[in-house]
Amino acid sequence: MHLLLGWKGIKMCKKDVIQMISQSELDQMSQEFHANQAYELAANAAVKNGIMEASANYESMRKLPMSFSLDLKQGEITNQKASGRCWIFAALNTFRFEMIKKYNLSTVELSQNYLFFYDKLEKANYYLESVMTIADEPLNGRLFTFINNDPLGDGGQWDMIANLVEKYGIVPKEAYPDAAGSLNSRWFDQYLTTKLREYGSILRQMTLDHQPMEEVQEAKKKMLSEFYRMLCISLGEPPKTFDYTLCNKDDEVIQEFGITPKEFFQRYVGIQLSDYVSLIHSPTEDKPYEKLYTVKFLGNVYEGTPITYLNLPMETIKEAVVAQLKDGHPVWFGSDCMKYSLRKEGIFDRKSVGVERLFDTEISFTKEDYLNYGDSAMNHAMVILGVNLDSDEKPDRWRIENSWGKEAGQDGYYVASDSWFDSFVFQVVVNKKHLSEKLRKILAEQDRIELEPWDPFGTLAD
Asked: What does residue 351 show for φ and ψ, rounded to 5 degrees?
């Protein structure tokens, strides 16, 4: 049976097949609700306290203690405030871990604002180049609408971080601290996005008018110079060089004078970003396992390495994550942090967030269903710092470092059940040495399959 909506211009179907909610049906629904006292008790709890608080299951929460058989120690917790910079925070938290271990530090923090600045600049260029590439697409077409929707958003992906760091390096937070616009990016994003779309409209028309490409690129260069000025006014201009003093737990001092951001990354973090690969878990028919994927029009540094994913079964992914933790290194990962999440308690777990019991229903969606019907995808990046292995050496819970400050979770940390990990973790980043020879060969030799921009794996962590 087809249900046709009766807006103007749509031919209505016959009255005898239109299914409306009748008053008698409403009365029946109400009677069924009040017939069960448990529903009334659930309503009282939810209306008073909220759905998440009313559904919290203390028995399940007790089964997820914040203790782990494998636990890496980190510095002080960080806070992204009212911005979508989680992907930057998570990456820099993995980088600073290397510094803390290498130099015997209590804590250190790297400048998220520095990468935020250059991400905005590179995204502006990426958007303008994309608009020129698809200049003949209709303004109301799906592709242009998608690309134009949020060209300067705060979110990002691991490969976008890698491209920024390879090009610009990193700096300690003291060399380029947060600005008001990075702590709360709403107004900053709004006005710079408007200006960027204005640039896009001009370059699109110049392209459609078949003006010489040299003139179009010269116009874009002037636009980006003006955009750089707006970024500097909003966030401050990033340092080209800086002095740095480091004091460790033993009061030993290291000093650097006139070091560049790229030198700082190479010297103090010292990892090879090209050794790291994004593994995704997508059990959907359109993405066979052991294949490489990329997403059209997804990126920031236009000339940088394309977004690359290797889709693998979850068990293979978890084996690589555990191997990296055992090797003494944390793991950047992307998940749906909104699903079955208790923010105050710091728990990610379906049983602990008993909304299905609260509503007396069952949500039978599989991970494939979540992805196919747009109900779940990666929306937040964090760091895996630990895991608890059972008697069979299998994970049963994970220790998560978040970037929402100490007030969220247990002093800023979360514990995730292994079943939650299976359902709502979509991406992890590991050193490829933790993969089999067969998988490393795929990374080296296989061509990437292109996904449409609106694919679930085109979403950005923010």
From this structure: -75, -35
Closest by alpha carbon to 332, among 381, 295, 375, 283?
A: 381
Read off the pLDDT of residues 385-411 as tens digits, 9 standing for 90 and up.
Answer: 999 999 999 999 999 999 999 999 999
Helix runs in 273-385, H state only: 314-326, 355-359, 367-372
In 3D space, the residue among 271, 79, 107, 246 whose CA is nearest the CA of residue 175 turns out to be 246
- Could you give the angle at the alpha carbon of 325 between the alpha carbons of 323 and 328, nearest 5°? 115
Could you give phi then psi for residue 208, rounded to 5 degrees? -65, -30
Strand, coil or helix: 168: helix
pLDDT 10s digits, 406-428: 999 999 999 999 999 999 999 99
Q: Report yes or no: 239 and 171 within 8 Å, Cβ to Cβ.
A: yes
- How far apart CA 462 and CA 460 sit, in angstroms, is 6
Instruction: Give the pLDDT confidence of 135-162 residue by residue, as tens digits.
Output: 999 999 999 999 999 999 999 999 999 9
Cα–Cα distance measured from residue 448 to residue 432, given in angstroms and rounded to the nearest whole number: 17
Coil, strand or helix: which one is 5?
A: coil
Active site residues: 86, 380, 402
Give the torsion sign (CA, 114, 115, 116, 118).
Answer: positive
Q: Alpha-carbon distance 124 to 220, whole Å?
A: 10
Instruction: Report whether 415 contacts 397 (CB < 8 A).
Output: yes
Q: Tokens standing for 74?
A: 């980190």
What is the pTM assigned to this prediction?
A: 0.95
Element (H, E) at 342: strand 341-342
> How far is the C-alpha of 114 from the C-alpha of 320, rounded, in Å?
31
Q: Output the CA torsion sign for 137, 140, 145, 149.
A: positive
Predicted confidence (pLDDT) at residue 16 exceeds the cutoff of 70: no
342-358 pLDDT per residue, tens? 999 999 999 999 999 99
Q: What tokens does 319 get? A: 């084996």
